[in-house]
Amino acid sequence: MNKKILYLYIAFLLEILFIFYVKNVFEFIVSPLIIIGSGTFLAIFPYFLLRENKESFLEENTSNAPVSNVNLKTILALFLTLTVVTIFIVNYKINKYPINVNESDIIPFIDEIFVKRFINNEVIYAPYTGFNYGTFTPGYLPLHWFPFVISKYLNINYQWMVVIVFLLAATVYTLVLLKNIQQKKWLLINCALPFVLLFTIYFKNGKTAVQCIEIMIMGYYLILATLLFSTNVVFKSIGLILPFLSRYSFLFWLPVYFYNLLRNNFKKFLLVSVVFGAMILLFFVIPFVLPIPEMLKTFNANYTTSILGEWKGQSWQAPTDRPFQLFQGFGLASWFYQFGSGSLLERIELNKNALFLFSILSSFTIILLQSKIRKTVGTNLFSLLTLKFMLTIFYAFIMVPYDYLNWVPLVISIVILSRINHSSFSHKQY
Predict the structure, then answer these.
(1) Helices 27-52 & 379-396 angle (0-180, nearest 10)
(2) Number of structural domains, the chain?
(3) Distance CA 294, CA 305 (A)
(4) How do residues 29-57 score in pLDDT, each as one tens digit?
(5) Which range of residues forms the domain containing residue 43?
């Protein structure tokens, strides 16, 4: 293996270490910088590898490539084994940490508002009063809650639906691996990586894992990152719609993605735009916005109230303590709290402005440099690497850096590693 490829694995290891194993070891100044630096390195360093060897990363899926029976049987055995282990681990954690609304209201919130309203054929985004938020417009997008409607009808525990979505995403990812990687060693390693991440989450943050739905969101992003390399317009659009209708994190990346498509292939740009736009209309605007269009004015309006609550600290903290969620070694919100001036609301506003400013500047800069970068980096890999970069920037400046939010960019790192074309390097480099 090319020795420089190891740097990418080291960067991924640093992400894992500082998000899970040595969290906040260097406290709120240095720890976030290591995570941000590692994520940025994973997004940028492949460009320099490609300048040395244009075949060092896979740009297109080799959809017609034959899959050897040996590889198929080996990966099937590994995937099934890891799935069974996952089931045992998740079952243990679910039993150990039952849902507690006082610790996390995400799943109760979804059940009480979205699932009940959908089943009872009520207006989903009508104002709601409760959960200590006063009266507000529920602010979760459809794919953030609809899988739990399926859970309700099938009588499946909501916590299991989260894992099912991730396993489906891992299946899509693994099927693509089988078509693209011939060397058994790297096929096995890449197949195992999503499960290594999953096991790490349950081992180090098991309580959080079973009380939030972030593993499902990770599944969406794993599908997106994998399907970026598909030649099928519908598959590409499905990859885009899953995170778009669940979380706002990649919103600043979308102009980069569509501009990249436009410059590369106008027909594909047009088709993806039409299919993607049609999906937004069918799955969000027509069923949920048209019945109550005024919801757009107040959608997620209680978000600032939630942020302010976290910036004031937890109920169990002393008034002079630093807010717990801000000082866990994730993101730069602690910097704005510690070094910013003015009231809490003014510092929150400063943090929010920095988030928008750096995200917009990053998007604009990438678009300006697109033609130069694309001379070295292919269209699909460009989309993947810029997705990693934009998510790294977004989560660096998120106003409340919950630990679980940092899990999402890790699946993009995994897909970057899966695109390394190990067979392109000479034997002298192994």
Answers:
(1) 170
(2) 1
(3) 20
(4) 999 999 999 999 999 999 999 999 999 99
(5) 5-429
